[in-house]
Amino acid sequence: MKLDNNNHSVFLLKYHLVLVTKYRRKVIDDNINERLKEIFNYICKKYNITLEEWNHDNDHVHILFRAHPNSQLSKFLNAYKSASSRLIKKEFPEIKKKLWKEYFWSRSFCLITTGGAPIEVIKRYIENQGKK
């Protein structure tokens, strides 16, 4: 397992993010998906975030990414959702027929931390510290 680092720490912070379109409208095709991914890659650099995996269905995207301890995830999510919503609606005007208001994404999202070891293994490791 390769760990990330900076001047004073070593870390591995991975997240699984699911973003859903407003009203679960089925508007994400392959072209829109690629553009959403490009926008993600552009914005993530400012927040010390690295895309690891991306996939989509017609009404949502799944994203696996790595972050640094100083990454401001809530600010990043707001920046990404705002910018991608604005750009997608501008570049793909046909979406306005299915999403008539200013929103592309639902307000809600799912963000789950992921890791290399199951939580039970980590708990046992911590419980056994100091024991021979």
TrEMBL record:
The record's listing under Pfam families reads: Y1_Tnp (PF01797)
* Biological process per Gene Ontology, one example term: DNA transposition
Q: Which domain of life is it from?
A: Bacteria
Transposase IS200-like domain residues: 10-129
**InterPro entries the UniProt entry points to:** Transposase_17 (IPR002686), Transposase_17_sf (IPR036515)
Spell out the SMART domains in the cross-references. Answer: Y1_Tnp
Q: What SUPFAM superfamilies would the database entry show?
A: Transposase IS200-like
Q: Which GO terms describe its molecular function?
A: DNA binding; transposase activity
Could you tell me what this protein is called? Putative transposase
